[in-house]
Design goal:
With about 110 residues, the chain is α/β, with parallel strands linked by helices. About 35% of the residues lie in helices and about 15% in strands. Helix 2 (about 30-35) links the parallel strand 2 and strand 3 (about 40-45).
């Protein structure tokens, strides 16, 4: 299996601050995202990815986010297995994002 491309939270924050429109999917559970998500991220719980695959594969790059980076990396591997290119894991997940005081918003 290919290695999963990674993005560091500092790089993601820089890209967002530069105004890049990024396709980000937060795969955490409902009870996790109520505490905040990265602004602009879409919430699709990990177990819903297979049935909502068209929402995942609409951009050349999709950044997957979870609490620690483990589940989102599994989703990236799943997408690679399906032949989807452009899946990128956010290293360290929301724990790393919060450690650099990245902005969060409550889910809509």
């Amino acid at each position: 299996m290919d290695t999963v491309p990674q993005i560091e939270v500092t790089e993601l924050l820089t890209r967002l601050n530069q105004g890049e429109k990024l396709h980000m999917i937060d795969v955490r559970e409902d009870e996790e995202v109520i505490h905040g998500m990265i602004p602009g991220a879409v919430h699709i719980p990990m177990n819903e990815i297979p049935e909502r695959i068209t929402e995942v594969t609409t951009a050349p790059e999709v950044i997957l986010i979870c609490r620690s980076g483990y589940r989102s990396e599994r989703v990236c591997e799943y997408l690679q297995h399906l032949g989807v290119e452009g899946a990128v894991n956010m290293s360290g997940g929301m724990l790393a994002w919060n450690s650099i005081s990245g902005p969060t918003q409550l889910p809509s």
